[in-house]
Amino acid sequence: MKITQVETIYLRQSQVKTQCDSGQDILIVRISTDAGITGIGEVDSSPMAAKGAIEGPFSHTTTAGLRELILGEDPLETECLWHKMYRQNIYSGRRGIAIHAMSGIDMALWDIKGKALGQPIWKLLGGGFHKSGIRAYASSLFGATPSETNARARRFRDQGFTAVKFGWDPMGRDETTDIALVREARQGVGGNADLMIDAGLVWDAKTALQRARAFADYRIFWLEEPLAPDNYEGYRRLCESTDTRIAAGEEESERCSFLELMDKGKIDIVQIDLARCGGFTEAMKIASLAQDRGLPVVNHGFTSYINVAAALHFLNAIPNSFITEFVSEESTTLRDVITRQRIAASEGVVPIPMEPGLGIDLNEEALEKYAVRL
Questions:
Q1: How many domains does the chain have?
Q2: Are 29 and 70 members of one domain?
Q3: Cβ(54)–Cβ(105) under 8 Å?
Q4: What sign does the CA torsion over 244, 250, 255, 258 have?
Q5: pLDDT at residue 93, as a whole number
Q6: pTM recorded for the entire structure
Q7: Which residue in 11, 24, 84, 330 has the most C-beta neighbors within 10 A?
Q8: Measured distance CA(152)–CA(148) in Å, rounded
Q9: Each residue's pLDDT tens digit, 358-374
């Protein structure tokens, strides 16, 4: 079996709001083979930049468009292809956009592998840790006000979620607002639910420590990304000064940057996005490094059900996973329409996919409607 085509499909809503919701425009990778098997993947990045990284021509032996490197290759050779893409793009692609682009390709290759072998990806990865399903936390942006956040939290509680996360704006405006947001979130979810707070990169280390101590009254399960991602010394100081778990990792691409967060930053919970970190091939290595350090792993994903499905396969394949992020943002985005399947949580639990490959198919009508013609 050989790869015959690598497509990138850029989808964009007619209106994109100024908010941290990456479900508003999406880059899909679709890979075809001479055996008639097609795989899909997703890139969570700057879509047009990632599209260029995939579609660009050969430049020289350490900088090349990713498509050029895998056409004609065997899609089952996922490890070899990952290293070929990395090594022959090492000049411009050791971090960031190129790794994001590789993520979508790797995801699509594993989708092909699962379909070719008639198995879900988690089984090919050797997993089976959560066969019946995995607990999910409802993941949402904060409401515009503390009272609106309370209302959202109550709705998620009533939907059966036993864990809820709120994040980003208006967190970081001032101390009074920050504390009020967390207080109202706790009141809304109730006393028994786990509450996670995503600060959205808004503080320095001392302010983050002050907030972690103030939030302790509301028993948050973790405080996510309070600092800039490269502030490893700040993360170390924070993690060593508070009992609150500190989570980070969604800004990272490939294992070396995760090692910095784990070994220098001393974070407590490692967050891996399959559509950013290098796909399944690299995510498994990152999870293994975290396991060696006694650290739990969770996914990050705020895009489509392609990434949700990928995360479920991944989390079911590693021993140090315990919960999954499940986007519950109440505004309608592309994630609701671009796949034929919609993954749902029942009483706060999401089922593990059992179909071959990812178990997700594209909605061709939605692709036609939202594709950006270039």
A1: 2
A2: yes
A3: yes
A4: negative
A5: 87
A6: 0.95
A7: 11
A8: 6
A9: 999 999 999 999 989 87
